[in-house]
Amino acid sequence: MTERSRASQGAGKDLLVDGGAEVVEDPDLTVEALARAAAKKRPSAILVGATRTGRIVAARLAAKLRLGCLSDVYRLKVQGSSILGERDVFAGKVVAQVKADLPCVASVKVGTYPKMSEGRTGLEVEEVGSLQGGVRLVETLEKRAATTDLRSASVIVSAGRGFRTKEDLSLAEDLARALGGALGCSRPLSSDYGWLPEELHIGLTGVTVRPSLYLALGISGQLQHIAGIKESKVIAAVNTDKDAPIFQVADYGIVGDLYQVVPAILEILKS
Amino acid sequence: MSTFDKNAVEESIRLKEASSGSVTVFTVGRSDAKKTVKEALAMGGDRGCLVIIAAEPDPHDSLTTAYLLARAIERAGPFDLVLCAEGSSDIYAGQVPPMLSEWLALPFLGYVRKVEIEGRVIRCEQTLEEKVRVLEAELPALVSVVSEINEPRYPTLLQIMQASKKPIEELRSELLVDGRGPPRLVTTVGMTAHAMSRKRVIFEGSAEATSRKLVEALRSEGVLKR
Q1: Could you tell me which CATH number the domain at A6-127 has?
Q2: Most buried in the list A57, A245, B4, B6, measured by CB within 10 Å?
Q3: Contact (CB<8Å) B128/A51
Q4: Which CATH superfamily is domain A146-270 in?
């Protein structure tokens, strides 16, 4: 519901559950609306986009309806009376094949299916009555545009613990600017040191990015970080430690000091 | 203990220190999961409850895990707040907290980076992909926290020793299910290593020489705009 996608294509009719505008914003109401519609229509699968809100909706709905639930899955296929899917586990190092008995609920990994065109017609509409939830929305704070920028950036320069002070991050910013890209960081810089806002944290619990070029500066390459970058087209890394795990997942690596390498790259780009 | 779980335990102890009350730590697992409970007790939990399952659980069968936790929590008596991590650090399905809220019929506030309690009202900052929502609900409620909410403490040696004296109740899962538990609907069929084919070309030498090689390589890949 939150991200309508073509994951359901070929599975039969799509159903539009109409519960009013506020329903999409409130997981409680979405769950209630979908549960009512499902009780009446008995769909064989309910697919939800695996945003944070979508994951909440899928899991709550599954518990309410006592159905199995697949979380953050892709490559879905129906086989007999069950649905099969794949999902990334162990910070993306392993792919798990999971199976749920039909009917079931599944949240579908964002970006793994093309989006459905807006204003699609021919949907069957099911209206549900008035709904009530237990959580009140007091206010909505916009996050900085940073996260959106990172998701759409074709070049990302990312900073890690190899930077010794907050001021030194200007090196990474300069390089990002020179490459026409965006700045990101690994978790320690945002969560532990507070040098950069949380919106720039790339990794399993932060933002997942898919740029053409991901350039990691002074990032060792913990599994949780790799999980957020592995779909990049080209990964390049600069690190002083030649055994750093980031080099195992990089297309190009420089074993060297970023404090010398970054100015050198800037110089080359200038000429 | 999964790293994210430590954030949930830490937050519960901070809330207890700021007001009053006590913290009970719940987990579902084999009997060796007792050491996880002890870790949380060393951090400051008051008592533990371990739901022991006989067979190795399927890591994707969240419905059963949430159901067993719900029964164990109900059995322990009245409470104000249930805190969970957003997901486990290995499977990261993030299904148990919302499912648990459904089984316990509690308002659910997920992916929370800040918790405040005033009287019987809980106010949370929920951090979504592109915005932060400030939410309120009446207690009792269920909250799942994100890792940026706090920095978990390291227990001292004394606390670790004292933790071994704190009570841990062990419950066998069969006794909690009483024939009405959820059927196992989700199974893990297989696990395969993720194929990550990267070129892994490494340049070593002077900063100038290696930088030049890198820029050339990136230009020929066509990923440099200028």
Answers
A1: 3.40.50.620
A2: A57
A3: yes
A4: TPP-binding domain (3.40.50.1220)
